[in-house]
TrEMBL record:
GO terms classed as biological process: calcium import into the mitochondrion; positive regulation of mitochondrial calcium ion concentration
Pfam families: CCDC90-like
Name this polypeptide is given: Mitochondrial calcium uniporter regulator 1
InterPro entries for this protein: CCDC90-like (IPR024461)
A GO cellular component annotation in the UniProt record: mitochondrial inner membrane
Cell location: Mitochondrion membrane
Major subcellular location class: mitochondrion
Keywords of this entry: Coiled coil, Membrane, Mitochondrion, Transmembrane, Transmembrane helix
Family of this protein: Belongs to the CCDC90 family.
Amino acid sequence: MLFCFYLGFTTQQSEVIVSALVKIVNTNLDMIYKDMVTKVQQEIALQQVMSHIGGVKKDMIILEKSEFSALRSENEVKISIFDLYHLFFIKDVKKWFVPKRIKLELQQIKKQVMDEITKVRADNKLNLNLEKSRVKELHSLNERKLLEMRTEIVELHAQQDRALTQTDRKIDTEVADLKTMLESHKLDNIKYLAGKISCGEIGQYFCKLSIDCIHKGHGSKEI
């Protein structure tokens, strides 16, 4: 306000100019803050995403371990049953007299058990491969989402930078216009003062000339 006062403006004019500048700056700042995201909000969003990804990875590891342990325990139980059967029956067949029909039934049971074990192993291997593929796909999906979020954050920063640049340019333009207006008013005031001083000097000259004429008239009459 003192700057405006020194340029020749009155107190009321200075207050109007300063109020206009404050409104312009506040409006531009409101427009910027409306589209901006604070650093704290960005960090919170990134922490939430990383926490979600960590939770998914942890769940996948636990699921993979639990399923693998269950399948392995099931296989061990089946293999143990077959081993007991083989130990207590097949090996003792030579020691005891066993009818041929029972031998055939035992061989069929043995074949069925072996087929079942082979089938279970194949199913387990297939399930493990499917689970690994699913885990890889989920990991790839999480990586893509994280990359998209990073891209969005970078784009948001770029938009904020562009908005700040435009605002700076607008403020510079308005300040330049205001300086031009102030210079114009200053020049008008100088012209006004110069004209006023010139008129006063001309009036003083005519007054002085009139007084001289009056004095000369009185002098001629006395002669």
